[in-house]
Task: structure prediction
Amino acid sequence: MNEVGNFLAEAFCRQLAGLVTPEAIRAVEDSASPGELWRTLDDSGFADALLPEAAGGAGLDLAQAFPLVLAAGEYCVPLPFAETMVARSMLAAHGADVPAGAAIVLAGPSAIIPCGRLAGYALVDRDGVPTLVAAGGSGSDLFRTGAATELDEGEVLATLPRDPDAVLLAAAAVSAALMAGAMARVLEMSLRYAGERQQFGRSLGKFQAIQQQLAVLAEQVLSTQVAARSAFTGSAFDPIRVAAAKCRANEAATQVCNIAHAIHGAIGVTAEFDLQLYTRRIKQWQLAFGSESYWGARLGQARIAAAAGTTADFLRRHLATGSE
Amino acid sequence: MSLTLENFPPAVIPPHAEALRDEVKAFIAEQLEGVPPHVRARSWAGFDADFSRAMAARGWIGLTIPREYGGAGLDPFARFVLVEELLAAGAPVAAHWIGDRQSAPLLLHYGTEAQRRDILPRLCNGELFFCIGMSEPNSGSDLASVRTRAERVEGGWRLNGQKIWTTYAHKSHYMIALVRTSGTSEDRQSGLSQFLVDLSLPGVTVRPIMIGTGDTDFNEVFFEDVLLPEDALVGAEGNGWKQVNAELAFERSGPERIYSSLVLLDLWARLLGDSPDPADAARLGRLVSRLAPLREMSVAMTALLAKGESPITEAALFKDMGTEIEQQIPAEIADAVATRPELATDPELLRTLAYLMQLNHVFSLRGGTREILRGMIARGLGLR
Result:
C-alpha cells in the first residue's frame, strides 16, 4: 500500500545518513544558518515529493509521505525540510507559485516557530487565510535549534482560500511526526548506550530496573509513531487525527526524554554527545503548536460532538487506518 | 532484534468482517436493554450463561474455528469486530470468553483430531465453558515453577496439585491446565505439558474465593489423584511452555486490554453534555488520544494473527500500555467528578466508577503482570 513512500524513504534515509551527520547538525546550530545543507537537500527533490508528478513531484499522498517525515525526525534534519514539503503541497494544491528553492516554515499559532530563523519564507495564518510571506525569524533562539519567537514578515507571495485551521493542523501534524522520528532515534541510542556502558561490572542493559525503563521508553515511542502515522492520511490533515497525534506525542515527550537521559547520565546533555541534539528538538516541538491540553480539549470536544455510540465507534470512524 | 513501527504494519479491517458489526450491535442492543452501566462495567468479567448461549445460537462462539468443528470458519478480523462490539457495550461474555479466546484455538492447533471432534462443536454450541489453570499458590509470575504434576499411569495420567485464581472454575466444565509431566521446578520451562481436565472428574475440588467487593469470580482448584484419560494431554508432552506462550499472544493482543473501563468513559462523556468544561474535554481527549494508537496496534496484531504469525512481544507491549489506560480512566474520572465536591454526581456514574475503582488496580495483573511484560519487551529489544 505504501511501497512508493517506503522506497523513497529508503533512498532519502541513505542520503540523510551521509548528509545530515551530527557534525552537519552542529554546523547549522553553530552558524545559525542553513549553509549549503539546504541547497543540497532541496536539490535532492524530496521536498517536492507531495507535488503532482506533472509539477515535478512524486505525487505522494500524506500516508506515502509519512516515512519521509519520520526519517527527517530520525536524522534530526536541522532545517525545515518536512515543513517545506507540506507547505509546498498546500500551496501547489491551489496553484500558488512558490519561489524556487524556498525553505518554508509552518507558522501556525505558537510561542515558538521551529526553524523560524533558518527559512526565508513562512506559511502564516492571517485572519484565517493561509498566506505565504517572505519572513525572517527573530527573538530568542530558546532551544538553540534555530527556532524563532518572532517572525518579521515581508512581502506576501501567495494567499490560499480561507481556512483558519489549515496552517496549525499542518504544523502540529509535522511536529508530531518529527517527534515520533526523533523518539525512535532516541530509543535506538538509549539501547546502544545501555549495551555499552558498564557499571557495577555489568552493562546497564543487564539491570532489570533499566530493562523495565527501556520497555516503557519503547512503548511511548511506538504509540507516538502509530498516532503520528494515523495523522498522515488522505489528502489533507484531519483535525481529529492531528489532535490525537500531537496530544500523544506531547504526552510521551517528557517520559521519553526523562528515560533516555536517565539511561545516559550526565554525558547525554553534553555538547559533544549526540543525544541532546534530538531531545532539545523533541522539547521544542512539545512547546510548539499546541499542548496536550489544547489538543486534548479539541479531541474531547470532537468525541462529544460526534455523538458516536461508544468511544470504540469514535476511534473506528475517525482515527482508524482506512477510515475517512 | 528490536521493536519498530514495522512491527505494527497499518491494517484495515476488511469489509467481510465489518459486515458483521451492525448485526452484533443490534443483538447487543436487544440483549442488554435496560442493563445499567455499573453492571455492564463488569465487561469480560460478567458471567451470563444465557447470554453466551444466545451468542452460540447465532454462531458467534468459535468464530474462527473451521465449520467442520462447529465454528463459523471466519478469520481473526471478524472476531475482532465481534469482540470489540461486545466489550465496548459491556456485554457479559465471561462464560464463553476463555474457551472462545484461548481454549478453542489451542485445541485447534495442538489438539488431536479426536479432541477437536469431541470438544470444539460443544464449545461452539455454548454447551462447554472453559477456565485456565496456570497460577498456583507458589507460582504466580514465575509460571515455570508450577508443581501440579501429571504422572503416567496405565491408561492415562494421574493428576495431583493445586491451581489458584482460576476465574469461573466453579461455573466451567473444563480446565486447560499447565502442569509438570517430568523433572522438577528447577527444570523450569522444560517438562511442562497442557491437559484438558474435565472438572466433573472424581478428585477435583473447586472452592470459590470471595474478594473484598463480595464477588466470587476466582477459585482454588484442587486435584487429588485425578485420573485423566490418555487423550487428556493437549499437544506434545513437554511442549506446554511453548503452547502457553502461543496462547498468550491471543490473550494479550485483543481489545479487552483497552476497553475494560470504556462503559464508564462513555457514561461520563455523555453526562458532560454538549458544552463541557474545557478541562473535562481535555481530560476526555487525552484519554482518547491514548486509546487511538492502541486500537490501531490491536488491529495490526489481528492482521498478524490472520497471517498465522504470533506477535508475542508486540502483544506484551500493547497489553502493558492498554491496561495502564484502563487503570487510568477510573482514576481520571474520579478526579473529574470530585473537582467540585459541592456538586452532586450522577448516582449511576458513581456506582459504575466505584465498581471500577475497586478493581482497576488488578487490570495489570491478569494475563501477565506489568513487570513480566516489560521483561518480555526488554527481550524483544535485545536486552536479555
